[in-house]
Structures are given as structure tokens and as C-alpha cells.
Amino acid sequence: MNEHQLFGPASTCQSLQELISLAQCIVGDEARCAITAYGMLLGARSAPVGDYRESALGVLNSLGVAKMELDKSSCHTEPTVMVTAAMLSAAQKFVDEMTIPCTEWPTSTEVVTYVAEFAARYAYAGPWRRTLLGQHGQVIGLEVLSTR
To answer: Could you tell me the CATH superfamily of domain 3-145?
Structure first.
């Protein structure tokens, strides 16, 4: 499956800020979880690529920043916090288990690949719905987003 099939409209976002804007109007916990997982993947991909221990740690650092931004933007709601915590913890465990001190560690690419595979657990095919807001910010309806 490609990212659009896994993460729907979230996969069109190129930055965490763009994704956060999308998340603010999406309705439904499953869709929010998919958006959050894709946000964590974007965070992991934002880290510099490299073969050294610091590069793998850089991916974890980027995931930490993405977790903070996603949690904060969702007002620390349960669906978001559960996904960000699970993804950061899984990535940390992966790096720890793949590390033999002073001799071996995963590359940043391996960590990002692991994060992508983990994110796929939160895939959501749809339907994706978002709120429509009136002139004064009140909800005036729902719109089904195309997942094609």
C-alpha cells in the first residue's frame, strides 16, 4: 500500500504545520490517529540522514519534537497522545535493541523505515470528514474528503 492509501488526505501534507492545520478540522478518532502517525513519520523524515549513532539519535530527537508539537496542537487529547507516545517509545526501543555500544547502531534510514512500518498500524481508509466553519468560527456542517 502506498502512503495515500494508508493515510488518506494526511499524506498530501508536506510539513508538520500543514498537517496540524488539517488535523484541527478532521472528525473521528481513527482519522486523527492516522494523521498523528503520519505527523510522527514526517518528524522522523525531517532528521538529517547518516550512518552514525548521532544520526539515529537525531531521528529520535526529531520524533520528540514532533510528539510535542502534535500533542500541544491537539490539547493533549487521548487519541493523539496515545499514538505519539507509542511511536516514540517503539522507535527508542528499536534504536536501543539495535545498538551494541561502541560498535553497532542503526542508521537514520533504518530508524525512519521502522517508524514508517509502525505508523502503518494507524492506517485509516476513511471516510475522512472535516468540519465546515461559518464566518464566526461556528460549525455549520461536515464535508467528506476525497481519499483518491
So the answer is: translation initiation factor eif-2b, domain 1 (1.20.120.420)
